[in-house]
Write a structure and sequence with these properties.
mainly alpha; 2 domains; 7 helices; globular; disordered C terminus
Length: 205
């Protein structure tokens, strides 16, 4: 018999939503302590993202709502942090736009595929993108803290920007991979071809 989880995983997921704006609020103060607090909150956001999934699987509390709520929370928190980085000059507008457009496009692909009775499976590029965004964000905040605490270390001041460049390029590459993998389904939908009697499978990982 599976024990009841000590806390509902959806509550853990919900905690991320207010934490991200608070982290940005501290970040834009431009102070040492504000940056440190923002970095701590960014770390807690990443840990909670791992924790809610672990609790849901460990105590068999995976739900259809949770499957949708968790990625929504991930996108909400990361967009918020990216906007915060844009506000302090670490990220450029084209980077934030590229990241937003990628996820918006994937959501569109999934919606179109659903109308064709196709399941868009997760692809390795999507998992790689998530890893680069998750770990990259932590390294960005780490270097922001080091820059504030040790301003004489001028050589590291540009590191957060270049990490953002790498994150953005990986995100764009993931979009191209998903677009290529789902192009047949998109083409069928564009041309309004009749559905096959046999249900199609999603793109393989």
């Amino acid at each position: 018999m599976v024990k009841r989880a000590p806390v509902d995983p959806n509550i853990i997921t919900s905690m991320r939503l207010p934490m991200a704006p608070v982290a940005v609020a501290f970040l834009v103060t431009g102070t040492i302590w504000g940056t440190i607090v923002a970095a701590i909150l960014a770390l807690l956001l990443e840990v909670s993202d791992l924790l809610d999934g672990y609790v849901a699987r460990r105590y068999e509390q995976v739900t259809d709502f949770g499957k949708l709520y968790d990625p929504f929370s991930d996108a909400f928190t990361r967009y918020t942090l990216f906007l915060g980085l844009y506000a302090i000059g670490v990220a450029q507008l084209w980077m934030v736009i590229a990241i937003f457009y990628r996820d918006a496009a994937i959501s569109f692909f999934r919606t179109v595929a659903a109308t064709r009775e196709v399941v868009v499976a997760a692809r390795p590029s999507g998992k790689i993108k998530a890893l680069f965004q998750g770990f990259g964000m932590q390294f960005i905040f780490l270097f922001l803290v080091l820059t504030e605490v040790y301003p004489e270390w001028g050589a590291i001041q540009d590191v957060p920007y270049w990490i953002m460049v790498v994150i953005t390029l990986v995100t764009i590459a993931s979009f191209l991979d998903y677009f290529r993998g789902n192009l047949p389904t998109l083409r069928d939908a564009w041309e309004n071809r009749p559905l096959l009697r046999k249900k199609k499978k999603g793109s393989p990982e």
